Amino acid sequence: xxxxxxxxxxxxxxxxxxxxxxxxxxxxxxxxxxxxxxxxxxxxxxxxxxxxxxxxxxxxxxxxxxxxxxxxxxxxxxxxxxxxxxxxxxxxxxxxxxxxxxxxxxxxxxxxxxxxxxxxxxxxxxxxxxxxxxxxxxxxxxxxxxxxxxxxxxxxxxxxxxxxxxxxxxxxxxxxxxxxxxxxxxxxxxxxxxxxxxxxxxxxxxxxxxxxxxxxxxxxxxxxxxxxxxxxxxxxxxxxxxxxxxxxxxxxxxxxxxxxxxxxxxxxxxxxxxxxxxxxxxxxxxxxxxxxxxxxxxxxxxxxxxxxxxxxxxxxxxxxx
Length: 321
Prior knowledge:
Elements: E1 38-39, E2 45-53, E3 58-66, H1 68-72, E4 80-84, H2 102-111, E5 119-123, H3 140-155, E6 165-169, H4 172-183, E7 190-194, H5 205-209, H6 214-221, H7 224-227, H8 233-237, H9 241-247, E8 254-260, H10 271-284, E9 290-294, H11 301-306, H12 308-315
Parallel strand pairs: 4-5, 4-6, 6-7, 7-8, 8-9
Antiparallel strand pairs: 1-2, 2-3, 3-5
């Protein structure tokens, strides 16, 4: 059973391991910790903040987009969308001139009145698949679901009920968004994920370690602190989208995932197989969801920019005005 409410495309878990993909060097990204606030034409702004996260055992960073109405109506509370970045990105990447002025695009969509006002939060998630380390030293799932949520709901006037909280992801963050929403449907009302590379089976590290592609093997090294090599079976199964799709109670979570046929990572990982498998599982369980395949569409922030209106329309369906 599939919903077809909107023509939408978002970005998911993809293997950004080559330096020219995002203008960053291979390996762990290093965040810009204190960039200046961005002020937009109609009164929106993007702030860059940090706080202490118990789950990460140190400082955590994020950016937050606040709509024009946030300052215009000081008694107003707004819904919130959490957006998870991709590999070797950080909380500032979405504001990069390389991808156009995405904050201004969001502001324009808001001022046109087609979607309700909201705050948009981009946390810095490093490169650990938004998943707790198997040894418990860092807990990125707890960071998103607890520490960051508490930080935002304490420091900003945002609505705190599930229907006014949504989750999205780009590239690596797409895997994280889909996984976190399916595991925690009591926290999020909607999730979007596009171009997902959904790894299948009980130990995908065999595929990675056996690959002749240097890019795939470099990507595989990022798994070590999270799942171990070979994978810690119990930890992987608890965080596998394939496994979760077959067992989780998703309640009335709005689910949307998609990819473009010109995604450059289709030649590295069996994208279609992973996506189609999850689509089939959800269909067999009669769980409403939407899957779109876009002919000739690419991967990345360029694609996000092209479909931002549809993305925000989907994510804000449950928001109260």
